[in-house]
Specification:
7-stranded mixed β-sheet; globular; binds nicotinamide-adenine-dinucleotide; binds zinc ion
Length: 351
């Protein structure tokens, strides 16, 4: 089969590799649609380590091709969506409700639920093997097209979880820092959770436009104005919840400074180096603030719930799928996505 294989920093591309087979508890799906994640850019740039030879990608939509022993209730040919995070559903972390920190049968492991395109072969390929298939194959309702569900696997699950972890309440004022794919989905999530005011922050014209389209009442350009002061003005003293969706000191700190006392900072960004918490930004530790972090929730029940939101018309992510490429041209897709050319948000990849 053809697959996008990582070989080293800035060395990756389509290769002919052996097709996977389903072992006990696993399934093989024929991939009909997938996409590229910002995290995949970190991988190919050598900023997130994976082993050479790794097939990249963690957002598969496809058709069941093969079921291993022990997987029941599915048929060959079923259309399925698989989350970016594939928990085992049986370890202590999973059973305690921390599926993303799954230890693959052995308790907790930070990020342990993220296997596809990380610790096992991923989905930018004609076929992908799904581990713990019983917990991770989510059947796609007949009336939904691949394009309507592919972004649920990662960016929607993650972005919306930022709103859920922030425990947004009806009537809350929410600010979302960065309106990339993740931040835009956090904006969607804030609306779903009942925020009365959603403020999206970015510095890119296209993305600020998308922010309004996806439900932000106000879109602020951090290059043009003092965002913290403006959020305080718009909210009459501070946001109830600030969602961080970039992963930098600047956005983390601004999110904190935007909060009212008692507010929650819900962090989704991936940070590197040191993250500092200036005492004046959080009332010297006495402001009753909450800081929470979330890794993309996965598993078939999460995917089922997200697909229900699409089926009933509560959310529509198809506008975010701005470009489309055949798998054979994935190099071009990485270039366009990586350089954020042509107003790209997400690219559809068709094996
Ligand atoms: N928690 C998770 O499970 C999870 C999952 C996937 C990705 N992530 C992380 O989420 C973050 C966002 O991912 P993405 O794919 O949306 O990123 P992206 O790079 O596509 O988008 C980032 C956006 O931030 C904007 N920006 C840059 N500087 C800014 C500033 N100072 N203030 C406001 N906006 C600014 C950019 O214009 C861009 O639109 C990354 O750190 C990514 O690694 C986390
Ligand atoms: Zn991802
Ligand atoms: Zn587990």
């Amino acid at each position: 089969m053809k697959a996008n294989v990582f070989r080293g920093t800035n060395r990756f591309g389509i290769e002919e590799v052996e097709r996977p087979r389903a072992r006990a508890g696993e399934a093989v799906i024929r991939v009909t649609l997938t996409t590229i994640c910002g995290t995949d850019l970190h991988i190919v740039r050598g900023e997130y380590p994976v082993d050479p030879g790794r097939i990249i990608g963690h957002e598969p939509v496809g058709v069941i091709e093969e079921l291993g022993p022990g997987v029941s209730g599915y048929s060959i040919g079923d259309r399925v969506l698989v989350g970016a995070i594939t928990p085992c559903g049986q370890c202590n972390a999973c059973l305690a409700g921390h599926l993303s920190q799954c230890g693959q049968g052995e308790g907790y492991r930070a990020l342990g639920g993220w296997q596809l395109g990380n610790t096992i072969q991923g989905s930018q390929a004609e076929y992908v093997r799904v581990p713990n298939a019983q917990a991770n194959l989510a059947r796609i309702p007949d009336q939904l097209k691949d394009e309507q569900v592919v972004l649920l696997s990662d960016i929607a699950s993650t972005g919306i979880s930022g709103a859920e972890s922030g425990r947004i309440r009806i009537g809350d004022a929410v600010v979302v820092f960065a309106q990339g794919p993740i931040g835009l989905c956090a904006t969607i999530g804030a609306r779903l959770m009942g925020a009365s005011l959603v403020i999206g922050v970015d510095g890119d014209e296209t993305r600020l436009r998308f922010a309004r389209q996806m439900g932000a009442d106000v879109a602020l350009d951090y290059r043009q104005q003092d965002v913290v002061a403006e959020v305080k003005r718009l909210t009459g003293g501070g946001a109830d919840v600030a969602i961080e969706a970039l992963g930098t000191q600047q956005t983390f700190e601004s999110a904190l400074r935007c909060l009212r006392p008692g507010g929650t900072l819900s962090s989704l960004g991936v940070y590197s180096g040191k993250l500092e918490l200036p005492y004046d930004a959080f009332a010297a530790g006495l402001g009753d603030h909450r800081v929470v972090t979330t890794l993309c929730p996965g598993g078939k029940e999460r995917m089922r719930r997200l697909m229900e939101l699409v089926r009933t018309g509560r959310i529509d992510l198809t506008p975010l799928l701005t470009h489309s490429f055949p798998l054979a041209d994935i190099g071009e897709a990485y270039a366009l996505f990586g350089e954020r050319r042509e107003g790209v948000i997400k690219v559809a990849i068709r094996p």
